[in-house]
Amino acid sequence: MPGKPIQCLKTIGYMNPLILIDEVDKLGRGYSGDPASALLELLDPNQNSSFVDHYLDIPIDFSNVLFVCTANDESTIPGPLRDRMEIIRLSGYDIPEKVSIATKYLLPKALRESGLQKIPGFSATITEEALEALVKNYCRESGVRSLEKHIEKIIRKIAYNAVNEMESNDKGKVTVDVIDGSNKSIGSFSNNEVIIPDSSIIDPSVIESNQTNESNQTNESNQTNESIKNKISQLDQNVVVTVNNIEDYVGKPKYTQDTIYDSDKDEPLPVGVVMGLAWNPLGGSPVFVETAAVPTQYSESGGSVNIITGQLGNVMKESVNIAYTFARKFIGEKFPDNKFFKCNVLHVHVPEGAVEKDGPSAGITMATSLISISTGRALRPRLAMTGELSLTGKVLPVGGIKEKTLAARRSGANTVILPLGNKRDYDELPQYVKDCVQFHFANTYEDVYKIAFPIDK
Question: So which residues are the catalytic ones?
Answer without folding.
Answer: 361, 404
